[in-house]
């Protein structure tokens, strides 16, 4: 994040207390300030920087900090730009997301918290990290779902692929590869199950013919309702998922 040093011409004016924390890093030569989407402020300094210097630096930048906080406030509620939690109804998990300004971009889930380290706390940097995390998270869940429905239907794919797509929940290739969308974790367990059944049935019929739907109906009689819900579900996908 770019910031400009402001004139310290009004240093005697009362300064409202800013909530900020200090992080030290030997790699940082000049102090850096990061404003978080939820209003928190972090100052990254070399370990040898004195507290008085840090304080002065924050105060010099207080106008910029407030302006940035204001920008985040404008963006946040309507657009879910950087979500503070992610709900995964398919597996009954609700995970808070913690953001941290860092020297490199990475994502990890530890103790039920998604931790994002990013050079810039912007959608451009953070959304791909969240998507990476979701793909990793989805892999064992969707593979297991296929294994369960394989036993239930007797239909067995050659290979299972997990992708993150914005246009379809799943697909089935003529060579017997099933592709499932990691975004299914954001749907209900019943919808996830239905998509797996839908794609497995394509192993028998590579079309949407009457015979195909008869086969689907044998495993999920309520398939029309699922088709309807899943086709509409794209409209409510969070922004970080669609990119
Ligand atoms: Zn289909």
Give your account of this protein's structure.
This protein is of the alpha/beta class. The chain has three domains: about 20-75, no CATH class; about 85-130, no CATH class; about 135-240, Metalloproteases ("zincins"), catalytic domain (Zincin-like, 2-Layer Sandwich). Helices cover about 40% and strands about 20% of the residues. The protein contains seven helices and ten strands. It has helices at about 50-60, 60-80, 125-155, 190-200, 210-220, 225-235, 240; strands at about 20-25, 30-35, 40-45, 85-90, 95-100, 105-110, 115-120, 160-165, 170, 175-180. A four-stranded mixed β-sheet has the order 4-5-7-6, with helices on one face. The protein has a three-stranded mixed β-sheet with strand order 1-3-2. Zinc ion binds near residues 198, 202 and 208.
CATH architecture of the largest domain: 2-Layer Sandwich
Q: How many β-strands, per DSSP? A: 10
CATH topology of the largest domain: Zincin-like
Shape type: elongated
Distance between the termini: 20 Å
Q: What's the name of the CATH homologous superfamily of the largest domain?
A: Metalloproteases ("zincins"), catalytic domain
**Name of the CATH class of the largest domain:** Alpha Beta
Mean pLDDT: 85
Q: Into which percentage range does the β-strand content fall?
A: 15-25%
**Count of DSSP helices?**
7
Q: Supply the helix-strand structural class.
A: alpha/beta
**Major β-sheet, in short?**
4 strands, mixed
Radius of gyration computed on alpha carbons: 24 Å
- Give unreliable regions as ranges: 1-18
Strand order of the largest sheet: 4-5-7-6
Compressed to H and E, one letter per element, the order equals EEEHHEEEEHEEEHHHH
Ions, cofactors and other bound molecules: zinc ion
Helix coverage percent of residues? 25-40%
């Amino acid at each position: 994040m770019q910031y400009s040093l402001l004139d310290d011409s009004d240093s005697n004016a009362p300064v409202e207390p800013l909530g900020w924390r200090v992080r030290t890093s030997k790699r940082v030569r000049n102090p850096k300030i990061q404003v978080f989407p939820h209003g928190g402020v972090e100052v990254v300094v070399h370990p040898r920087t004195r507290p008085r210097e840090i304080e002065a630096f924050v105060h010099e930048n207080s106008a910029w900090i407030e302006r940035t906080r204001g920008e985040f406030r404008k963006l946040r509620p309507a657009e879910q730009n950087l979500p503070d939690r992610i709900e995964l109804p398919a597996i009954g998990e609700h995970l808070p997301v913690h953001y941290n300004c860092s020297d490199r971009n990475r994502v990890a889930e530890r103790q039920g918290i998604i931790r994002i380290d990013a050079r810039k706390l912007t959608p451009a940097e953070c959304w791909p990290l969240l998507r990476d995390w979701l793909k990793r998270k989805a892999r064992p869940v969707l593979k297991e779902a296929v294994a369960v429905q394989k036993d239930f239907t007797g239909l067995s794919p050659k290979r299972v692929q997990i992708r993150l797509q914005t246009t379809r929940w799943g697909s089935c290739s003529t060579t017997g590869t099933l592709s499932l969308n990691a975004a299914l974790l954001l749907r209900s367990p019943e919808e996830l199950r239905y998509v797996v059944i839908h794609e497995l049935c394509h192993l028998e019929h590579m079309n949407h013919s009457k015979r195909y739907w008869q086969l689907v109906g044998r495993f999920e009689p309520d398939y029309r309702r699922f088709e309807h819900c899943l086709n509409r579900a794209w409209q409510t996908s969070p922004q970080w998922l669609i990119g």
